[in-house]
Write a structure and sequence with these properties.
By secondary structure, the protein is of the alpha+beta class. About 25% of the residues lie in helices and about 30% in strands. About 35% of the residues are buried.
């Protein structure tokens, strides 16, 4: 690789752990070495391709002692395609890795001594679950980005996607498509725009109903006197408004500002009954939104996260006014390193 160390070192490593993002971690003279496509407990030979002061990145050369949880990946592109990280690991073990990663990051970054972890909610389908994918077309190649690269890999079929999606991919590939990005969807429920795995999305919605939250708002209509949805995404708000009842209000705008406005116009805001559900992007809650939530102090706060690290950072802040009741990981994206988490908090 250009600019890297000119001579590659070959090392033998015992994999101790799986880091968030999916790479195995071994130690070479106390330096952490990241090795993709490995499993904790395995003895491997790796080629160091990038060396930093604190850690090194490597590529797997050989597995000398295999884990009993190692399986044959069914996808011919696995290892080259940047989408999946765990097809070499049996599904039960993938779930265990993700559960531990959530607990560990909440202890380390969120400073939670006792994490009230619930069992991880698995996907009913470890493969063929995705109801949509975005493929890229460039110079006649249609597919996904290669691992650690912006080059494309030609993909004829994606095993983690539903049949309808793969049919759409086949049709797209049969055309002479212009360079660009193409989102291919399966016919799905009204929440297709927000969640990629229908079965796990339903499980998440049920979980939120039990905690007192909503899909998010819609799932709570029978439980709440009034539902207010706020999102900067006008398309999401338009979709929610289309079949809204008189109980529902949907606002396209800045979440922090709208929460402040709610607080100022509703001094009699019934905090002891209020439920706030937040589902931020991977960057987590902006400081202004965290501040607004702490000022508003709803009785119940449900935080749905797609990034345990930013979730942990935000919880460290929110814990001044809230108690963490439960943490439930959900496997929305089997075979990948992605983790979804739902946290139920109660006002102190």
């Amino acid at each position: 690789m250009p600019g890297d160390h000119p001579s590659f070192r070959i090392v033998d490593l015992r994999i101790r752990d799986i880091a968030f993002g999916g790479k195995g971690v071994g130690r070479d003279n106390s330096k952490a070495v990241f090795v993709p496509f490995t499993i904790e407990g395995e003895l491997v030979t790796a080629k160091i391709v990038r060396e930093k002061k604190q850690f090194a990145e490597s590529e797997l050369v050989d597995v000398r002692e295999r884990s009993p949880d190692r399986v044959e990946p069914p996808c011919p592109y696995f290892g080259r395609c940047g989408g999946c990280a765990y097809q070499h690991i049996n599904y039960e073990h993938q779930l265990g890795i993700k559960w531990r990663q959530v607990r560990d990051v909440l202890q380390r970054i969120g400073k939670l001594k006792e994490v009230p972890m619930r069992p991880i909610i698995p996907s009913t389908e470890p493969y063929e679950y995705r109801n949509r994918i975005t493929v890229h077309a460039r110079d006649g190649v249609v597919g996904f980005f290669r691992r650690d690269s912006n080059r494309l890999i030609d993909i004829a079929r994606c095993p983690i996607s539903r049949d309808e999606v793969n049919r759409a991919l086949m049709e797209l590939r049969a055309q002479h498509v212009r360079d660009g990005h193409y989102t291919l969807r399966a016919a799905s429920g009204p929440w297709a725009f927000s969640q990629t795995n229908d079965a796990v999305a339903d499980a998440l919605r049920d979980l939120i109903r039990q905690c007192g939250g909503g899909f998010f708002a819609k799932a709570l209509l029978d439980k709440c006197k009034r539902v207010i949805g706020i999102d900067w995404d006008k398309f999401a708000i338009d979709a929610a408004r289309r079949n809204a009842t008189t109980k529902e209000t949907y606002i396209a705008g800045d979440v922090a500002l709208e929460l402040e406005r709610l607080r100022s116009i509703a001094p009699t805001f019934q905090r002891e009954k209020a439920v706030l559900i937040v589902d931020p992007p991977a960057t987590g809650l902006r400081p202004a939104v965290r501040k607004s939530i702490v000022a508003l102090v709803p009785a119940t706060l449900i935080y749905v996260s797609c990034n345990p690290a930013t979730l942990a950072r935000d919880l460290a802040d929110l814990r001044q006014r809230f108690t963490v009741e439960s943490v439930t990981p959900l496997d929305m994206f089997p075979q990948t390193a992605e983790i979804e988490v739902a946290v139920h908090l109660q006002a102190k």
